[in-house]
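Input.
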Amino acid sequence: MKSKRAILRIQLNLEAKEGLERICEQRGMTQISVMSRLMEWFVQQDEVIQLSVLRLLPAELAAPAARRLLERLSDKAGRTT
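Output.
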């Protein structure tokens, strides 16, 4: 039987680790559950959002890309109402 879960390790700097610990404490969640939900959200995002979050989008392209993304999201929202 193939497992439906995978365990991954992450490397954080001290500031990020402390931030994660604060979030977990505030929300009453484990680090694994927070990171799992973040990754589930992240992989479902548009490529522009992924590039922005990963800071891989050059600064000169960020504003035009954000505008195009907002237009796409607006178009999608208009079609579902």
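The mean pLDDT is 89.
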